[in-house]
Amino acid sequence: MIHAIRIHEHGGPEKMVWEEVPLPAPKADEVLVRHEAIGLNYIDVYFRNGLYKVPSLPATLGMEAAGVVEAVGSEVADFAVGDRVAYAMAPIGAYAEARTLKSDRVVKIPDDIDSRTAAAMMLQGMTAQYLLRRTYPVKAGDTILVHAAAGGVGLIMCQWAKALGCTVIGTVSTPEKAALAQAHGAAHVLISGQDDLPARVKDITGGAMLPVVYDSVGKDTFMTSLDCLAPLGMMVSYGNASGPVPPVNIGLLAAKGSLFLTRPTLATYTARHSDLVATATDLFSVVQSGAVKIQINQSFPLKDAAEAHRALESRQTTGSTILLP
Hints:
Blueprint: E1 2-7, E2 16-21, E3 30-39, H1 42-49, E4 59-60, E5 64-72, E6 84-88, E7 98-102, E8 107-108, H2 115-135, E9 143-146, H3 152-163, E10 167-172, H4 175-183, E11 188-191, H5 197-204, E12 210-215, H6 222-226, E13 229-237, H7 251-255, E14 260-262, H8 266-269, H9 273-288, E15 296-301, H10 305-313, E16 320-324
Parallel strand pairs: 9-10, 9-12, 10-11, 12-13, 13-14, 15-16
Antiparallel strand pairs: 1-2, 1-4, 3-5, 3-7, 3-16, 5-6, 6-8
Helix pairs in contact: 2-3, 2-9
């Protein structure tokens, strides 16, 4: 038996329960991973509150972790007992001391990246990778907008985009977060609810507006994000921190300049094992080079995951947060 954080019904953080659960032996195509650190992500909130549906209840939360392989299934050839591994966007179940999962959802961690860093960056860092390198491949000279620039994905995107030669405009909720975003590569930082976002973007860009907006906030920022785009610009809506975006009349995209709109997910971009490995390898490389530094600004014992959720939802966190078994 092991301990895990589970929910028996959807709702607030109080629905999260620390309890004993069985640990099955790995099936033929699975590995058993003993977790050393677990990542906290906003998608965990969505599964907890019911915005995203769990396969069944009770359910163990969590999408991301790093640890050591303790056992392998009979058909697993790429991993061995003792390998240091990490994963993100596997089926939920990371809020546990250990778990089994399919080996094609796991990647090996380079020797010079510790488990806590790996757990803090897999989901957020691979999200930044596909957004910047595949959804809208940024190029040197681009000016881009990153919402929630002081969050886990935001801080990685600010650093990575700057390294690629972009000018980053970030939005944050407080002056303290503005300073953090600037320290990590954002050239301009605007305070949500205080600055007139489209007007400031127009001023910063000399009227040219933006080729892309990366928006993880959702309902509260969607319409103003569209107003920041240049004709033929791309609106990338990849999160719902303020709530889901209401139904949209696609005629708005024509009226605002033949805009593109996409709602991507990391699960789609890493569905094939080859894409997962390529995405993780690119992320590991940019971290190893020093161009992107992973900021673990909060950690909680795994048994106190409810407290971590409260901090995340109340915007008290910056950078990455990890849970420790």
